[in-house]
Please model this.
Amino acid sequence: AGYAPGVEIGGVMPAGGVSEVVESRVAGYQPGDIVNSFTGWQTHSIARAGGSLRTIDPADAPISTAVGVLGMPGMTAYMGLLRIGQPKDGETVVVSAASGAVGAVVGQIARIKGCRVVGIAGAKEKC
Model:
């Protein structure tokens, strides 16, 4: 049991991805544009305008950050810590799974906010 159905043998592993537009029939998307969408792990995909599809400007940051610190993991860390946790300067923030994509960003944001950070990871090698 989990939050997503299992992947059938030969199916596409669901995941967000960064892609280059090869062909477009949608206004606002041109060949060569870099986009972020829920493409799955595959070499080519068809994305529909709207939904999770968004254009990325490679001049803003490395495009890989769209699936990391500037993507779902970063937004989860930001919203979870700052909107829900609301840490104050000098407080201690304990981060479980601190070596993961979300936890690593939570720890960095907490330090920026003036907190003492204690990270928990599954093995000594991850600390």
